[in-house]
Structure formats: C-alpha cells, structure tokens
Input
Amino acid sequence: MTGRGGGSRAETRPRILVLRALGLGDLLTAVPALRALRRAHADHELVLAAPRRLTGAARSTGLVDRVLPTAAAPGRPVPTALAWSGPPPEVAVDLHGNGPLSHRLLSSLAPARLFAYAHPGTPDVTGPPWREDEHERARWCRLLTWYGLAADPADLRIPDPRRVSPAPGAVIIHPGADAPARRWPPERFAAVAHALYAAGHRVVITAGAGEGALARRVAGLAGLPSRTVLGGAGDVPFDELAALVAHARAVVAGDTGLAHLASAVGTPSVTLFGPVAPRLWGPPRSAAHRVLWHPDPRDTTRPGDAHGGRPDARLLRITAAEVLTAVFRLPRVDGAVAALAVT
Output
C-alpha cells in the first residue's frame, strides 16, 4: 500500500512506526492516539505494525498509511522481529504494552525518537510511569500527551463505512471471543436471540474465523434459520462488518472487538464483562451503551484472567433476562415485557 499521497512519495516522506500487534478491539481503542499522531505529523507516513488480518480495519480509520504485517502467534506476545526496510523511523511509538520486550524491538530499528512508557528493564527509555488502573484509550493518550502531543480519549469515532449493510436494522449477537474466559454461554446468547426474534427484530449472529460452529449452535438453539449467521469460516471482511454494525439497531457482545466497533461507529450496544472491569475496556459513558458486570465487593479492576480457559465467574452471573432488559432500554430498540420470558 502506498502512502496517502500515492506513488513514490511514501518512500521519501519521514515515517512514524506504531507498534500495536494485537486484535481488532486493541486497534480501535488506539484510534484516539493514532489520530493525535496523524494530526501532529500530517506530513509523515504512518506505518502500523499489526497482524495482516487488521489491514482493512486499519485502513478504515483514515489514519494509517500502511500496515507492516507482524507474524501470527498464539496469545498476545510481542513480535520477535519486524520486516522494516529503509531508513530508521523518525518516531517509533510503543502502543503495544509497557516493555521491556516491545521497547527493545523498536529500539533495534534505531528510531530518532521513541515514545514509550518507562520500565525498569529499559532504563534508557524515558517516559511516563505505567498505571494498571487506567482505561485503554486514556492510557495511550496520556503517553502522547507526556511527549507534547494533544490527544483526546473521547475522539474514538471512525469514518462511516461506504458499503451498504447486508442486514440493515438488525440486532447483532456476537457470541465469540478470543478466550473462553470472556465467552458467555451459548445457551444464554440463544435465549436472548430467540426473545428478540420473537419480539419482531431481525437478528444476525456474527462469527470470526473459527467461530462458525459456535454461531450456528446459537442460531440453532434460538430457532433461527442458518442464514442469520454471518462469517465463521473466516473473518467477515472489515468493510462488510463495519457497514453491518454501523447500520444495526444494536450490538450484544462480550468484551470483544465487535463491542469496540459499535462504539467506534456510534451504534447502541450491550457489553458483557467478566474477568476485567469495564472501567478499563468499556464503551464511552452514554445512554447508547450499557455494560453488565457483577464483581465481588473486593474485586480489583482485573479480578480474573482475561485469557483464561473457562468462562469467568463474574460473566456467568449475568442472566439472559438481564441482557434482554438492557437491550430493550437502548435508544433504537423496541421490545415488549412479554419477551422477557428467558432465564
């Protein structure tokens, strides 16, 4: 992909390299920081080091000139290397974590400047202190503010998608997540989907790569036709997914990328939280977004393992009736009390 100016201009422009080699939700929570970098360095080529599957999503933000693909690996590790070529970046920005591995990876490219949080393992990196109890959007904006760039955590919207929605006005149910700890039981998603369908709403069950069986199970338990499932064999192309979400009535999902996409395009949502508090990853405070979370009285902001192998106990405290009630209280959704006959 060439720079926004086209042709060979991208090869001569100074470059900013941003490391965020994570998932869709991680990319979308970094949009305010990416926008601050774009605004402060309008004449630079902004290169994002991220998984290749996020190329479409990165392009849709209007902020990234090029994606530098990172190698796929299980979990969320720091890449071991980057296929960088040409002169060193003028600025390297660590939006991946707080080091030291990510610091060393970027430092190996000899950037003129490195923006990163301080870590005792890399004392040569001068940056602000890391805070565990901080919302992800605010965290990266604070980093850039420390380096003198104006950044607003609320500036999270992405441009409206140009593609027509495959299911305008639908309520989207997304039962998947990249770890079992954040997957609400399929039987409960099915109960919600069935009640919404019975109340007269169009329902779409979305699935990422490898989640087709889960989505079909939810649709089957809900008594919905197989055509209500979108995706599964692979990821839904991002332009199609963004159009679907942007023109939906509502999104119901766990703490996943689809929930962050709803925030990014302004679609009402109900998000289910378990191992991590919504104050760290939740949507903006608004009547259009409702979060459900049932922590213990003494729970910290990260009381469970977000990458654990079984559904978190706090997530399991959320009932289908509670979710449906929250959906019917969203601004675009109508529903009858009779539809609350779920467990």
